[in-house]
Amino acid sequence: AAAAARYDAEERKSVGSGTGGARADGWQDPRKGSFKAYYDKWDSFDVDAELDRIEAEERRAKELIRDEEAARRKREEERVAARRKQLASLKLRVEPRDMSETERTYHARREKEKGNEYFRSNELEDAVLYYGRSLAFDPGSAIVYANRALAYSKLKKYAKAEEDCTSAIERDASYVKAWVRRASVRFSRGRYVEAIADNDEALRLDAGNKVAAKQRKEAVTKLREVEGMHAETVLESGDRSAVKPGSRGTRLAIAEDDSSTDDDSDTEEVPIGGAARAAAAVDAVYRSGS
């Protein structure tokens, strides 16, 4: 009790002296004085200035990221430009016609392999160039034409892709991949009847080809969207001109979808063969208009 009385006396003395909770022996009650200092510090804190500082730091960080990204893009563009310039300057050191067949075959395979390497690394323009060099040595290679067609297709150069697919088919009409790829390209160009015909031919050559079956189903679906109720007439008769002018559906915008995969897909029972006849007629119209 006596100790408690002495403590209270000391407390009253310290409060009365205005020391803010400090005692003669240096002890300070943390409950007293510290809160006043805290609030005094908070009152002196400039919120607007702190917000401005934070915003400035965020701006500097964003600018730094933007500058680094711009520098990276510039370096990449310069690298690609330099590489294209280098490739464009490359000339065939020896005229293919001056080579033996064995030499031409060797160089054609070597250039094709380079094209494949660039294709795998997604350097498609370079892949196209080396496939072209391979064809300079062996213009009869259906495989290289089909490979270059795929590169053109990924570059969305569909007209060139279709032309290369056709060249591949002309050199080897049994080359299933060429038919499948041309069907995909024609689908991307909105030429659904011809796409169906190419898939039909691929399925005739390889009845179990899952890609062709899936692509065919997609092309039939798109054709029905375009032609509406007249789609069956086109598919069954093989003659798109049988649909009266003005009664056809609106032609859809060119689709740039090359999403066909190798997964299983049930095909619809649509007569095979009729589309091929229609495709020939449509192809003639395209050629006459080009």
UniProtKB/TrEMBL annotation:
Task: State the residue spans of region: Disordered.
Answer: 1-32, 236-274
One GO cellular component term:
protein folding chaperone complex
Coiled-coil spans in chain: 47-93
Gene3D superfamilies assigned to the protein according to its UniProt record, in alphabetical order = Tetratricopeptide repeat domain (1.25.40.10)
In this chain the TPR repeats are located at: 108-141
Q: Which UniProt keywords apply?
A: Coiled coil, TPR repeat
User: What is one Pfam family matched by this protein?
Assistant: TPR_1
Q: Where is the composition biased (Acidic residues)?
A: 255-269
Recorded hits in PANTHER family, A to Z, give: RNA POLYMERASE II-ASSOCIATED PROTEIN 3
Q: What is this protein called?
A: RNA-polymerase II-associated protein 3-like C-terminal domain-containing protein
Organism from which the protein derives: Bicosoecida sp. CB-2014
